[in-house]
Amino acid sequence: MSARIIDGKAIAAGLRAEVAAGVARLKESHGITPGLAVVLVGEDPASAVYVRNKGRQTVEAGMASFEHRLDASTSQAALLDLVRRLNDDPAVNGILVQLPLPGHIDPAAVIDTIDPAKDVDGFHVVNAGRLATGLPALVPCTPVGCVILAKQVHPDLTGLEAVVVGRSNIVGKPVAQLLLAENCTVTIAHSRTRAVADVCRRADLLVAAVGRPEMIRGGWVKPGATVIDVGINRVAAGDGTARLVGDVAFDEARQVAGAITPVPGGVGPMTIACLLRNTLEATRRQHGLEAPG
Ligand SMILES: NC(=O)C1=CN([C@@H]2O[C@H](COP(=O)(O)OP(=O)(O)OC[C@H]3O[C@@H](n4cnc5c(N)ncnc54)[C@H](OP(=O)(O)O)[C@@H]3O)[C@@H](O)[C@H]2O)C=CC1
Ligand SMILES: Nc1nc(=O)c2c([nH]1)NC[C@@H]1CN(c3ccc(C(=O)N[C@@H](CCC(=O)O)C(=O)O)cc3)C=[N+]21
Ligand SMILES: [Mg+2]
Predict the structure, then answer these.
(1) What is the pLDDT of residues 151-181, one digit of tens each?
(2) Within 13 A of 193's CA, how many CA atoms are on the CB side?
(3) CB of 27 within 8 A of CB of 62?
(4) Choice from 96, 177, 190, 267 to test ligand 1 binding pocket (greatest atom count within 8 A of CB)
(5) Is position 25 annotated in a ligand binding site?
(6) Can you tell me the ipTM of this complex?
(7) Where in the chain is the domain with CATH 3.40.50.10860?
(8) What is the mean pLDDT of the chain?
(9) Which is deepest, 48, 59, 71, 186, by most CB within 10 Å?
(10) 277 is an annotated ligand-binding site residue
């Protein structure tokens, strides 16, 4: 048996086209151009990939892109000042501060300073709390991307045994919240989980967000399960160049799974598409416009 490969690249392209159409309608009917500000402090390889792809796709969707690249030695006070200026700038509808930040900056203080209405990452405690309590929220992009990809296989996720490996605030916890809202029975595994392979083997829907290259082996996957691989890990290839791999051993898992996302071309492109969708939605709400039915 060989798994169906879930084509995140194609699904993300479709979602970006929908967002572009929404942006065009907003411009035509209200003269509003959504604007997304991205702040990058220092150099982080994962963030560099993300920023490169995103700047181009923001402009392709018809939005304004504002990039702020700051030196790695930038003080926390200077970064908070920039965030406050972006909060007050009416041309900026979405703000994303790339994580991780240099060690001398407290990420919680930065996220807490972002206006929740412009928090298109969905990382502010107000948005996390609204998601957890079932209120409308700006929802983290990668978790939403995971759910959209899972729904390609199971349009209704109700009743599935879902196992999420990883409990970070940016991926593991919010993806678990979204799957709970979709009526899955959700287990969250982490570095202190006993017999993690056995826990994974229970999953009809397995979401891997660990940050450990190819940790999840073929034998951890229940036959026929749907596997969503969030991991983005750069590893050295045989010839000395860098290669991108997920948190799942893809060549093994595809022999067992019913469906699986590839890396690259799976969750990564969905993250950017959902970021653009959040930016459009945030813009509409800031102007008192409801999303069209
Ligand atoms: N595709 C995309 O768009 C995105 C991809 N990513 C990628 O997703 C991955 C996860 O990111 P992120 O959530 O930020 O990572 P974090 O490092 O913040 O969290 C990793 C989680 O995995 C758990 N973990 C670590 N080792 C093990 C283990 N041996 N067994 C079980 N659980 C373990 C940790 O547990 P504990 O809490 O106990 O330490 C932690 O909860 C990374 O590869 C990252 O690059 C991230 C964001 C977007
Ligand atoms: N505030 C903040 N929000 C984030 O959402 C955030 C962040 N900081 N810091 C870094 C991580 C990582 N991340 C990625 C998103 C898309 C791809 C992506 O587009 N990947 C493509 C291309 C990869 C390639 O070609 O190298 C793919 O998987 O196919 C990668 C990584 C978002 N993150
Ligand atoms: Mg994200």
Answers:
(1) 999 999 999 999 999 999 999 999 999 999 9
(2) 17
(3) yes
(4) 190
(5) no
(6) 0.98
(7) 29-117
(8) 96
(9) 186
(10) no
Q: Tell me, using a 6 A CB cutoff, whether residue 263 lines ligand 1.
A: no
169 Cβ inside 6 Å of ligand 2 = no
Alpha carbon of 171 to ligand 3 centroid (Å): 7
User: pTM above 0.80?
Assistant: yes
Check pLDDT > 60 for residue 108.
Answer: yes
* 8 assigned binding-site residue: no
* Architecture of the domain delimited by 141-269: 3-Layer(aba) Sandwich (3.40)
Catalytic residues: 54, 98, 121
Read off the pLDDT of residues 61-90 as tens digits, 9 standing for 90 and up.
Answer: 999 999 999 999 999 999 999 999 999 999
- Every domain range in the chain assigned CATH 3.40.50.720: 141-269
pLDDT per residue as tens digits for the range 29-40: 999 999 999 999
Q: What's the CA-to-centroid distance between 209 and ligand 1, angstroms?
A: 5
